[in-house]
Amino acid sequence: EGAMSQVTVKVTIVELRHLVGLAGPGAAFSACAATHVRGDAVETPAMPLSLEPGVHKFEHTQSFTFDHTPLLINELIAQPLALRVSQVEAKSGDMTLLATGELLLDELLRGTRMETLVPLVAVLAPPAPVEGEEPALSPMLLVVIELSAPLVDADELDPDDGGLRVLELRLDGLRSLPARWLVEAGQPTDAHPYAYKVSAAVPLGDGAEYMVTFYDGLLARPGGDATAPAADESIPAKPTEHAEAEGGEQRVLWPAPPAVSPARCILPAASAEFLKQALDGGALLRLHFERSVRSAGFVEPEANRSKYLAVAHAQLGALVALDSLSASAECALVPEFPPSEEEVAAVADSVGKDEKKGKDKAAADKGAAKGGAKGKGAPAPTELPTEPPELPHPYEVAGTTLLLLASTDRPLFARPPPPPPPVPSVAQLVPKRVLPSLQPKVANKEFETQVRAAVTSLLDEFSKSFGKAPLADSSPQARETRRRTLLYELNNSGGYFSLKERLKKAVVRIVRESFHRTDESQLPAGAETDRFYAELYVHLVKLAHSTLHEIFYPQPLPA
Length: 559
Hints:
The protein is of the alpha+beta class. It is built from 10 helices and 21 strands.
């Protein structure tokens, strides 16, 4: 096999605009900007304000070279690039975070360069606007990202061929929670000291997996805690045995877009095909669940963390149905390290012996906490009580489940294009011949149409020569003069020849259609020929008189 291709990513942080420092608007300060590319830090040196008002010029560039893999595409594109801007003290070098921002790099799927002004969100509250002054401009960071080679081929972005897909995952909550996790009625869910994280391993092929991670899942009630009192963060919530509390069933919910960036995975053509085959074959998407304290005021025993580590497996086979764009799966949590019966029995024997010690230790810890509060320095963090192992596990007792939603921008199994139209048969290519006697009679209508056109042409020519007003001289001599003049103009302009040719074609069609003669060889000799011409003459004069009568003496419209 040949060597794996590589891609060089060049990140340039150009300049910072309109950010206010700690000293307030108009005060000069030094600033630096930083981010990470696949874990590698990009940090500008501290720069003072430039000559341009409100602008810090960085012009700082760093380059990184990576193997060109589907994992690289996801680590660059799937999640936004997090940017931080800090104020740097000149003497000590201490940095204070001023603003943050996020930059989506989706544009790099269709090109090798992007230049963007990233909006920044100030960490500190902005100063109150002074009456009469113009409002402060929004802070921005100018960033340029360049690639040495495209991340995906152009044909993979063609919606008709459809190689690349974007898989988006979302958690719709953890349900049927263990009883120890629930807060009592009247107590806010903020008193629950834990946060929850879920990681989904999306297979990309060749043994590679991309981890889509959901952070900061928090205990919540449907409808929120609008009427609940404020919680003291230093006091953990008391466990309750009730499955439901005020406001409905308590759940763990994760932030969803637009509050956070979508949790997604970029699937190039090969990875999309691999995932489709895996899901179609019954493979399950592996999820990893863990719990941790969310406040620095608490310390969780390692035994508790291990107790609630869990895995789940989501069946997303519906995602490979024809033209399917979404699927959902409710999967049960299974403890990653379930205790053995011997461990449970050993802990049960020691519970009675350690109960008194635990009470004495709690009293001593409470006295130490009071003494620490009176003395100098921050109080020591509170260690949460160690939970004993249980069989059956709390997840099994409560029936805890995790609901996962998955969607793609285009179907993994798209409907095939329609087949080409069938090749026409010989009968369709060769028009069907119709006997003359069976064809519709249209020659008379065409002759009438040509007579109407001839009348219109003659009137137009007469108007051009003599005008449209009534003629003053209507004597026979004047009328003859006008007739000769009109005939001269018709012959001279070619109008007479044009009228004659059109009428001739119409007469030929009448002969073929009404008299069933196609050429002169079919005409009989002698008297029969004269009779044929006489019949044709009478027929044409009748048609002409009828048409002229309709033109010059039209029937009045019915009232």
